[in-house]
Structure formats: C-alpha cells, structure tokens
Amino acid sequence: MIDGDHLNFNVLERFLQRPEPFASGEKLFWNDPHISKGMLAAHLNPAIDAASRRPETIEKTVNHMIRSMNLKAGDKILDLGCGPGLYCKHFAQQGFSVTGVDYSQRSIEYAEQAATDHSLDIEYKYMDYLDMNYCDTFDAVLLIYGDFCVISDKKRDLLLRKIHKALKPDGYFALDVSTKIHRKKNGLKNRWYAAENGFWKPEPHLVLENGFDYPEENLYLDQYLVIEKCGKISVYRNWFHDYSLGEIREVLEAGSFSVQSAWSDLTGKPYKENSEWIGIVAKKESLI
Ligand SMILES: C[S@@+](CC[C@H](N)C(=O)[O-])C[C@H]1O[C@@H](n2cnc3c(N)ncnc32)[C@H](O)[C@@H]1O
C-alpha cells in the first residue's frame, strides 16, 4: 500500500465506505492464534465486562436461570458460544449435565483444563454452533452476551431452527440481546492509533477504527482496519443488530418459541423502557 512516500488512497478508501449489512471481515477473529490470546485474557479478567461478564454477574445469572427455567439437577444444558466455560462450570457444580460449544480452540482448551482441574464432567465441543445437529436432547439452551445480535437475520433464523430442534418438548431457550440504548451509550468514536504490539497483532501496526450506523435496520458496525508494517491490511468487523422487546418477541415467535419472561438482563433485573439489554427466557412450542 505504501509506494515510496505515496499512500495508495484508493485501497484505503474501499474500506471507508459503509459496507453492505453483514459483509464479512477477516474469517479468523475468535479463533485467530494471536487475537484469541487477548480475548481469553479479557474473558478471564474479573474486573471488566469485556468478552464475558464479571464473576458475580455470572453467578447471579446461573442462579436466576435455574429458578426461571425450573431446572433440576441432572437436566441437560447446552451453552452455545460458551467461551472458556465460565457458566458451564457453575451449572456443572450444581449437578447439571452440561455441554459447551465454542469455535475458539483456545477457549475450549482452557475450559477443558478447568473442568479437569475441578473434577467436573462437562462435555466441550470445538464447533461452529451453526453446524450443530442435536435433536430433542436438551432441557435448556443458553446463548449469552449478545451472540444473537452479531449474525445476519438469515443465520439467526437458521440458529433458531437448530436450537428449536436441539431442545426437548417444552424446553427453554435463554438469551440476551442489546437494545439501541446500549448503542447510544457505547457507540464507537472514530479514532486511530499505532501500537508496537497489541490486541490485533503481535508486531507494529496501525489501527483505524470506525463505526457505521444503519438506523433503518437497527444495525451498527464496529470496524477495525489493521495495517501492518509490510502494508498488509486486515479488516475486522463486529456487527450488532439491536432489538426492542417487540422485535425480539416477533423473531422468537416466528421461530415457534413463546417468550415466558423478559428482564433488563439475565440476572433478573426488572425490564425498563431504557434498558441497555434484554434478558429473555423463551419456551419451545410446537412448530408453526
Ligand atoms: C461475547 S463471547 C461470550 C462468551 C460466553 N457466552 C460468556 O458470556 O462468557 C462470544 C463467544 O461465542 C463464540 N462464538 C461466536 N460465534 C460462534 C459460532 N458461530 N460458533 C461457536 N462459537 C461461537 C466466541 O468464540 C466467543 O467465545
């Protein structure tokens, strides 16, 4: 991209236009050998709500989920996008039969080691949950920390069909989605910075961050252009589809789920119009 003293602006400009909704960035993100190191550290940092929420929130969430879904020891739970297994561990300690699925190899290896260290019998699978094929197996399926928001409507509906199939009759699906209040509060400021080594790359690089808004679709993109010393450009994209309670209810009902309860989060804080998140428990109904 650098030609003598000249920057090839045409190359850069391509990435500065608002892309099509859900246009993909680099394939490797969660499973990138370097990025996944920083990501695991973020999951495990008890002081921040980064890749996972703080330990006290996780514990409260697990207890609230058990109560609100009427779960009993021995019930089978599937945690989709389980990361390093922070929720799985708590459920297993309370006597549940737990399966965790994630496509970060590093997180799954950490989770397996933690289960061994605590003598917990948890099944972990390194897999894309869009490829899962369970049938009538689980009493509850969890999808925690906004994963429903980051995929296109087409993939979201596919995932919903797979979750419906994976659940036993009358099984429960618990998830949380962000609202536009969250976006308003946390919207990305456009900025750039240079780093010797950092979250995105182990070598010197430049990061151009920009946010794109798609208000007509309740959609937002956080984009990170990472330029290495050799001129290589990588683009990382985090898409967020924010929901209102009405919209998420409609999507779940179209997928043959009925919303049983909705809160401001999955710890059970009462739902308010200005909630940043919506925590939901939905029940599997017969296919429409
Ligand atoms: C925001 S983190 C949340 C992790 C965990 N649910 C928690 O709250 O601690 C999202 C997780 O989902 C995983 N993930 C994202 N898309 C996935 C997919 N299609 N299949 C499997 N795992 C996925 C990522 O690797 C990451 O561990």
From TrEMBL:
Cited InterPro entries: Methyltransf_25, SAM-dependent_MTases_sf
Keyword Membrane: no
Domain Methyltransferase: from-to ranges: 77-171
Record keywords, A-Z: Transferase
Domain of life assignment: Bacteria
Record keyword Transferase present: yes
Gene Ontology MF, one: transferase activity
Protein name per UniProt: Cyclopropane-fatty-acyl-phospholipid synthase
